[in-house]
Design goal:
The structure is a single chain. By secondary structure, the chain is of the alpha+beta class. The chain has one domain. The protein is about 25% helix and about 25% strand. The chain is globular.
């Protein structure tokens, strides 16, 4: 997955689930439209295991 990739989801629940799932893999997203998000950054593999979802702001709604 590359930075700038647009991800369309089927509904709000799917959107949040996928955002959390991607964050666990070190992929940060931002919400850009209804049921749509964009990849904004990708963490190096070595940092993914130490990252906590609660510490991230990637899941905040803009």
């Amino acid at each position: 997955m590359a930075i700038g990739t647009i991800i369309a989801c089927t509904g709000p629940e799917d959107l949040y689930r996928r955002a959390e799932d991607l964050l666990r893999h070190g992929i940060h997203t931002e919400f850009i439209a209804r049921n749509t998000m964009r990849v904004v950054s990708i963490q190096p593999v070595s940092k993914v295991s130490t990252m906590k979802i609660s510490d991230s702001q990637a899941l905040s709604i803009a």
